[in-house]
Automatic annotation (TrEMBL):
It is a single-pass membrane protein. Belongs to the band 7/mec-2 family. Flotillin subfamily. This is Inner membrane protein YqiK. Keywords: Cell membrane, Coiled coil, Membrane, Transmembrane, Transmembrane helix. Pfam families: Band_7.
Length: 743
C-alpha cells in the first residue's frame, strides 16, 4: 500500500504534537507529595483518591488537599493546684509529652480527613484541643494507681499503662509513645488545705518529712558526738604523749642531777627519787580521776538531754490527746443537748397541736348546737305566728257577720299580742343564747389564764433544766419530771375550771330554754283562750247571722277582700321580719367578735393597770427602805488606785479596832484617859523619847514598843481589849522605820 509522504509526515507531526502536549499536561498538572504528608484528591467518584507519592490533578474536575501525617507532640502540663493526684494523695507537678501521628493507611487518612478536615488535621492547636482532655483523663486515671515515689521508680510501667488506657488507635490517629518530661512534688504552699485529698497529702508529706528530718538530725547529732568523742580521745593521747615527753625530759634532768649529786649524798638521792615517784603517782591518779569525772559528767549531761527530749515529746503527745478527748467530749455533750432541745420542741409542738385541735372541735360542736337551736326556735316562732294568723283570720271572718270593725279590732289586738309574745320569746331566747356563749367564752378565757401559769412554770422548769444540764443527768431528769407534773397540774386545773364554766353555761342555757318554754306555754294558752273566745263569738255571730243573712252576704265579699288585704299585709310583715332576722344573724359573727375583742381589751387593760399599781407599790416600798437606810448613813467620797483603797480599808479597820478596844477595855481606857482628855500629848511624849541622843533606830523602836506594852499590860485587861493592841504597836513602830529610810 503506497502512502503519500505528506500524509505520513502530517500524521507523524500530529502524533508528536499530541505526545508533547500530553507530556506537557502531565508535567504541568502532576503534584508530588513530600514525606510526612498525604495528597487527597476529590474526583468525580464516590470515594476520594489517597496517594502518599503524587498524582495528576486536573483543574475544575479534581480538588486536591494536602494533609500533614508526620509525627506530632501533645504536651500535658499539670502544676500547682492542677497537679496530678497520686494513690497516696500526694500532688505532683508533671509534664508529659505524647507523640501522635496519622496512621499511614488509606482508611485512617480518609477517617481523619472526613472527621476534622485536612487543614485542621495538620494544625497543632487542633490536635491539642482534640486530645488534651483524653490524655489528661488517662494521666489522672493512671496516676491514681501509683504512689508518688513510684512515679520515679516505675516510669516505664506508668508510660505503658498510660498508652494502654488511651489505646493505640485514636480514630485514625496513632499514639506512638509518651514521655515524662518533668516530674516534681507540688510545693506544700500550693496545696489547698480545704481539699480533702490535699489535706491527706499535706499530712503524709508532713509525716514523711518530719521522720526524715528527725532521722537526719539524729545522724548529725551522732556524727557530732562521734567527732567530739574522737577529738577528746585524741586530746587525751596527745596529753599522754606530752606527759611522757615531759617525764622523759624530767627523768633525763633528774639523772643528770643525780649523777652530779651522787657524790654529794646517796641518801638524799634516794629520798628525792622516792619523793618524785610518789608525787608522780599522785599526779597521775588525780589526773585519771579528773578525766573519769569529766567523762561521767559528759555522759550524764547527754543522757539528761535525751531524757528531756523524750519527755518533752511524750508530754506534747499526751497534751494533744487530752485536748482531742476534751473536744470530742464537749462535742458529744453539745450534740446530746441539741437533740434533747429538739425533742422537747417537738413534744411542745405536738401538745400545742392537740390543744388547738381540741379547741377547734369544741368550737365547731358549740356552733353547730347553737345553729340547731336557732333553727328550732325560728321554726317554733314561725308556727306560732302562723297559728295566730289563722286564728286571727277566723276570728275576723266570724266577727264580720256581727261587726266588721270589731272583728278588725279584735284581729289587730290578737295579732299585736301574738307579735309581742313572739318578740319577747325571741328576745329571751337570744339573751339565753348570748349568755351561754358568753359563759363558754369566759370558760375558755379562764382556762387559758389558768393554763398560762402552768405553761410558764413548765417553760421556767425547762429553762432551768437546760441551764443545769452540766450538773448531771439525774438532776435534769428530776427537773423534767417536776416540769411534767406542774404541766399536768396546770392542764388539770384548766380542764376543771373549763368543765365548771361549761356546766354553768349549760345551766344558763337550760334556764333560757325553760323561759322560752314558759313563753311558748303562755302563747299556747293565749291561743286557746283566743280560740275559745273566737268560738263563743262564732256562736254569737251565727245566731246574729241567721237574722241578718242578707246583709252578711253583701258585707261578706267586702270582708273577704279586706281579709285578703290584711293577709297580704301580714305576710309582707312576716317576710320583712324574716329578712331582718337573717340580716341580724349575718351580723352576729361580727358583733360577737367585736364584743370578744372589747372584753379582751378591757381585761388586758385591767391586768396592766394592776401590774403598774403593784410595781408602783414595790417601788414606793423600796424607796422608803432606802430612804430609811440612807437617813443615818454617812458618806465620804475618796479616790485613788486599788492600793489606796486597800490602805483606806485597813485604816478604817484599825480605827474601828481601836475604838472597840477603848469602848470595851477598862484598862486601856484608864491608861489612855490622859491622852484622850488632853492632859497629855502622845505625840509629844513619843517625840521626846525618840529625840534622845545616843539611841539608834532599833533602840527607839524597841523603846516605843516597850512603852506601849507597859501601857497595855499595866492593868489586868480583858481578852477583848488585848487583841486590838497589835495594830497600834505596828502603826507606831512603822513610822520610825520610814523615818529611818527617809533620813
Amino acid at each position: 500500500m503506497d502512502l503519500d509522504l505528506p500524509t505520513v509526515a502530517g500524521a507523524i507531526g500530529a502524533g508528536s504534537v499530541l505526545l508533547f502536549g500530553t507530556l506537557f499536561t502531565i508535567a504541568r498538572f502532576y503534584r508530588q507529595v513530600d514525606q510526612g504528608k498525604v495528597l487527597i484528591i476529590n474526583t468525580l467518584k464516590s470515594e476520594p483518591t489517597v496517594t502518599f507519592t503524587g498524582a495528576v490533578v486536573i483543574p475544575i474536575i479534581h480538588r486536591a488537599e494536602v494533609m500533614d501525617i508526620s509525627l506530632k507532640t501533645v504536651e500535658i502540663d499539670r502544676r500547682g493546684k492542677e497537679g496530678l493526684i497520686c494513690r497516696d494523695n500526694i500532688r505532683a507537678d508533671i509534664k508529659v509529652t505524647f507523640f501522635v501521628r496519622v496512621n499511614k493507611t488509606r482508611e485512617d487518612v480518609l477517617k481523619v480527613s472526613g472527621a476534622i478536615g485536612c487543614v485542621r488535621a495538620s494544625d497543632q492547636q487542633t490536635l491539642e484541643n482534640l486530645f488534651e482532655a483524653k490524655f489528661s483523663e488517662a494521666l489522672k486515671t493512671v496516676g491514681k494507681k501509683f504512689d508518688f515515689e513510684d512515679l520515679y521508680t516505675q516510669r516505664d510501667e506508668i508510660k505503658d499503662e498510660v498508652v494502654k488506657v488511651i489505646g493505640r488507635d485514636l480514630n485514625g490517629y496513632m499514639l506512638e509513645d509518651c514521655a515524662i518530661d518533668f516530674l516534681e512534688q507540688t510545693p506544700v504552699e500550693m496545696l489547698d488545705p480545704d481539699n480533702i485529698l490535699d489535706a491527706q497529702g499535706i499530712r503524709k508529706i508532713t509525716e514523711l518529712t518530719t521522720v526524715q528530718n528527725v532521722s537526719t538530725n539524729e545522724l548529725k547529732q551522732n556524727e557530732r558526738m562521734a567527732m567530739t568523742k574522737r577529738n577528746v580521745e585524741a586530746d587525751e593521747a596527745i596529753f599522754a604523749l606530752e606527759r611522757q615527753r615531759t617525764e622523759a625530759a624530767a627523768k633525763q634532768k633528774r639523772e643528770i642531777e643525780s649523777v652530779q649529786a651522787r657524790e654529794t649524798s646517796e641518801a638524799e638521792r634516794v629520798k628525792s627519787e622516792e619523793h618524785a615517784k610518789s608525787e608522780l603517782a599522785r599526779i597521775k591518779a588525780e589526773e585519771e580521776i579528773l578525766i573519769n569525772e569529766q567523762n561521767k559528767q559528759r555522759q550524764v549531761e547527754v543522757a539528761e538531754k535525751n531524757r528531756e527530749r523524750v519527755v518533752g515529746v511524750e508530754t506534747e503527745r499526751v497534751e494533744k490527746d487530752r485536748m482531742l478527748e476534751a473536744i470530742n467530749r464537749e462535742r458529744e455533750t453539745e450534740l446530746q443537748r441539741i437533740a434533747k432541745e429538739k425533742a422537747l420542741e417537738t413534744e411542745k409542738k405536738a401538745i400545742a397541736d392537740v390543744i388547738r385541735s381540741r379547741i377547734a372541735v369544741d368550737k365547731t360542736v358549740a356552733e353547730e348546737e347553737e345553729r340547731i337551736k336557732d333553727l328550732r326556735v325560728t321554726a317554733e316562732a314561725k308556727r306560732h305566728k302562723d297559728a295566730l294568723l289563722i286564728t286571727a283570720e277566723a276570728h275576723a271572718q266570724e266577727k264580720l257577720v256581727k261587726d266588721i270593725k270589731a272583728a278588725e279590732a279584735s284581729n289587730e289586738v290578737s295579732k299585736y299580742l301574738a307579735k309581742e309574745r313572739l318578740t319577747l320569746a325571741e328576745a329571751d331566747l337570744e339573751a339565753a343564747d348570748k349568755t351561754a356563749k358568753a359563759k363558754a367564752r369566759l370558760a375558755e378565757g379562764v382556762q387559758a389564764e389558768t393554763a398560762a401559769p402552768g405553761l410558764a412554770n413548765v417553760r421556767v422548769r425547762e429553762a432551768d433544766a437546760v441551764a443545769s444540764e452540766k450538773q448531771g443527768l439525774a438532776n435534769v431528769r428530776v427537773k423534767e419530771a417536776e416540769a411534767e407534773v406542774i404541766k399536768k397540774q396546770g392542764h388539770a386545773q384548766a380542764e376543771a375550771i373549763r368543765e365548771r364554766l361549761l356546766a354553768e353555761a349549760a345551766g344558763e342555757q337550760e334556764k333560757g330554754l325553760a323561759k322560752a318554754r314558759i313563753q311558748e306555754a303562755e302563747a299556747a294558752a293565749l291561743q286557746k283562750r283566743l280560740l275559745a273566745e273566737a268560738s263563743g263569738e262564732q256562736e254569737k255571730g251565727l245566731a246574729h247571722a241567721r237574722a241578718q243573712e242578707a246583709e252578711a252576704s253583701a258585707i261578706q265579699k267586702r270582708g273577704e277582700a279586706e281579709a285578703v288585704a290584711i293577709q297580704e299585709k301580714l305576710m309582707a310583715e312576716a317576710k320583712g321580719l324574716a329578712e331582718k332576722a337573717n340580716s341580724m344573724k349575718a351580723l352576729d359573727g361580727v358583733g360577737r367578735e367585736h364584743e370578744e375583742f372589747r372584753l379582751r381589751l378591757a381585761k388586758e387593760r385591767d391586768v396592766e393597770l394592776e401590774a403598774i399599781r403593784v410595781r408602783q407599790s414595790v417601788a414606793e416600798s423600796q424607796a422608803k427602805v432606802l430612804a430609811e437606810a440612807f437617813s443615818h448613813a454617812k458618806f465620804q467620797i475618796v479616790g485613788g488606785d486599788g492600793q489606796f483603797f486597800e490602805r483606806f480599808v485597813k485604816a478604817v479597820t484599825v480605827g474601828a479596832s481601836v475604838d472597840g478596844a477603848l469602848d470595851h477595855g477598862e484598862a486601856l481606857r484608864t491608861v489612855a484617859q490622859p491622852y484622850l482628855s488632853g492632859e497629855k500629848d502622845l505625840s509629844a511624849d513619843l517625840k521626846e523619847i525618840l529625840s534622845k541622843p545616843g539611841l539608834t533606830n532599833d533602840a527607839q523602836n524597841l523603846a516605843v514598843a516597850a512603852l506601849l506594852h507597859r501601857m497595855v499590860t499595866s492593868a489586868p485587861a480583858p481578852q477583848a481589849a488585848a487583841q486590838p493592841q497589835q495594830p497600834i504597836v505596828e502603826g507606831s513602830a512603822r513610822p520610825a522605820s520610814s523615818e529611818k529610810s527617809q533620813g
